[in-house]
Fold this protein.
Amino acid sequence: MTSTEAAAIALQDHAALWSAGEISASDVVNAACDALVAGLDTPGLRILAARTRAEADYDVHDLLPPALAELGLTFHPVASRAGHEAAARALARRMLAGELKPWELTFRVHRRYGHELPLTERLAELDDEYAILEYGDRTADQVDAEVTAEARRLAAHPLAPTEPADIPS
């Protein structure tokens, strides 16, 4: 994967996490800056990356969708099923990158979506298993391994958009 592909995935993930209320608008601006440094460059991305932390809370809502569209990426509306699924996949990638522990992934997904999102049902069940470890015959390491396998399954799902032709490789 090239650095521009990784930056596009990271920006898409930040957009999904912001839309789901998992991260702040300034985190999205930081991801836009990282995307520029990695070689992605469109007018909308430059405008988004130029926001200050104070401006981010007010401007990201309007600037993010067109910036993503210029890159061939998708902005999922707040509270949409596709947005929830994109956020869950982004959290899974964060766990696999070592930014979250397995129990943190299951806790965050379970807290936000409960058992209502079919894509993340297994993670919700595994969160329940963490809660009863002391009463069962499974160890935390066994549940961690199953969470990691489920995170890999979620993270392996391709991004919805196709790669735009104007992104340098």
Q: What stands out?
A: Helices lie at 3-19, 25-38, 43-49, 53-70, 81-96, 102-113, 121-131, 140-156. Confidence is low (pLDDT under 50) at residues 160-169.
